Amino acid sequence: MSLSNEGQSIDQLIDQVLVLCDQLPRTGTFAEYRRRIEDLRERLAHGSLRLAVLGQFNRGKSTFINALLGLPVLPVSVLPITSVPTVIRHGTGPACTIRFADGRPEKHAVKSIEDIERMLKQFVAEENNPHNRKGVSDAVVFCDSSILRHGTVLIDTPGFGSTHVHNTQTTFDLLETCDAALFLFSADLPITQVEVDFLHEARRRVRRMFFIFNKVDLLDDKELSETQDFIRSTLIRKGLSPTGDRLYPVCARHGQKELPGKKKKGVSPESGMEAVRSEIVDFMIKEKYFALSEAVDTKFKDSVERIVAALREEKKDLEEPLEQLRGERQELNRRIESIRGWATSRAKEVEA
Question: Which terminus of the chain has a lower count of CB atoms within 10 Å, N or C?
Fold first, then answer.
């Protein structure tokens, strides 16, 4: 499917497809991919680029996000804490909204970061919401962080690689709606086969990826250099970083100490967070609309193809009974002709 054969913009094509989708059922696959196409139109209209934060269990993902935002908005735990996605948007906040998959009234926290942390622990943490039994669709956090002022939407994804296998699938499903990703490695266990396998799947869903190397305070300079070279060479050898993407060394724990309300304020060079912030902001300013349009183009094509495939499958299901009826009709006609032939033969015998 070409999006430019007739000189139409992607916006026009999306609108045309949504008009056609009005004739389809509002359930199942059709409803799911219609929602995705509507989301793409919304993101194009507002220039919103969704940036997922990915990491295996216990890589310091929540600590890293807090340090990146410059605000301690996410709870931190040594346990697998995230069972549902947390979407972080720019706003005058801090504020938090919990949304439910079945359309129940939303729950809100707007008083303080402490209230937000308590609400996230109650509805997002695996220990308080195992297997998402509370039916949470997502949590939306609003905060006034400079990293979000260029239209970036950060998404804290469920960590993979723990005993909670469902979290990994939730993250894969979520990546279908994201445009770029930050992937966290950790110095205490530099790169695992679980991470390699996950990255192979993640790369199919999101093209632009930043690699972060967390907990570098555990290494001396020589170990840091050797470990970074090992991770980078492994990524290249496994076909996960063909161009040798940069690996950003950070200590999110030190970055967390720099946040308001902590003992230290300001940015410490040893955390490495300023380099990540400036690179991402630079990416957002220089490449945002290219990355967004590329991601939207790819995801739009995929959604349309999924809808077409579902229509073909439904057509096949409808045609199968017709084919069976045709076969039965042919068999009935054959029997009728056989009976007619027999009757004609008997009539001739009687006449004789």
Answer: C
DSSP SS3 for 131:
helix
Cross-strand pairs, 183: 54, 211
Q: Which of 96-105, 106-115, 145-154, 251-260 has the lowest mean pLDDT?
A: 251-260
Confidence of residue 49 (pLDDT cuts 50, 70, 90): confident
Tokens 């999006």 correspond to what residue? Answer: 3
**What number of other Cβ atoms are within 10 A of residue 104's Cβ?**
13
**% the chain with pLDDT above 70:** 80
d(CA 182, CA 185): 10
Residue 1: pLDDT over 90 = no
Q: How far is CA 116 from CA 2, 98, 112, 131, 228, in A?
A: 45, 10, 6, 21, 36
Residues 6+ apart with CB under 8 A from 321: none
Sheet strands side by side (includes 49-55): 107-109, 95-100, 136-143, 86-90, 152-156, 49-55, 180-186, 208-214, 247-249
Amino acid at 305: E
pLDDT of residue 60: 85
And the tokens for 313?
């499958």
| Whether 250 contacts 216, CB under 8 Å | yes
Coil vs helix vs strand at 207: coil
User: What is the DSSP secondary-structure string of 262-284?
Assistant: SS--S--GGG-HHHHHHHHHHHH
Is the pTM of the predicted complex or chain greater than 0.90? no
Q: Is the peptide bond before 94 cis (omega within 30 degrees of 0)?
A: yes
pLDDT of residue 4: 46
Pick the residue with more confidence: 50 or 25? 50
Distance (Å, whole) CA 19 – CA 198: 36
Helix (H, G, I), strand (E, B) or coil at 166: helix
Cα separation values, 121 from 83, 112, 130, Å: 10, 14, 12
| Model pLDDT, residue 260 | 53
